[in-house]
Amino acid sequence: MFDIGWTELFIIAVVAIIVVGPKDLPRMLRSLGQYAAQLRRTAGEFRSQFDEAIRESELDELRSTLQDASDMNPVNQIKDSVSESLAPLKETADEIKSGMDIKEPTETPKSKEPEGASDSAGKTKKTKAKAAAEKSRD
Q1: pTM beyond 0.85
Q2: Which residues lie closer than 8 Å to 116 by C-beta, 6 or more apart?
Q3: What is the C-alpha R_g of the chain?
């Protein structure tokens, strides 16, 4: 920013000694240092407030982005699209059901097992009956 070399600093120091005098030079340098410190503190405070404002704006953007993402629940969108696409099929099924006279059977026929059907032990029911009859004879 400022391009001040050693020669320029030497010239400034000589002029300050001539203008201010060697007696008041330490006081002047001390007050100059205090002003520089105050200027740095003010600049630091400004920078920190500016950074804080930027962080808050970024947080607000992040909050709004998260809110938008939570509003866009993909599961609900999928459910809605599926229910919309299935609505015509449900209407057609209802029309078919209402057009048909469904007679409910009054008595369900009992299922008969074939003679060679086996149970979990691998024996047929016929052989089990034979075994039970032999036991009763003994």
Answers
A1: no
A2: 124, 126
A3: 49
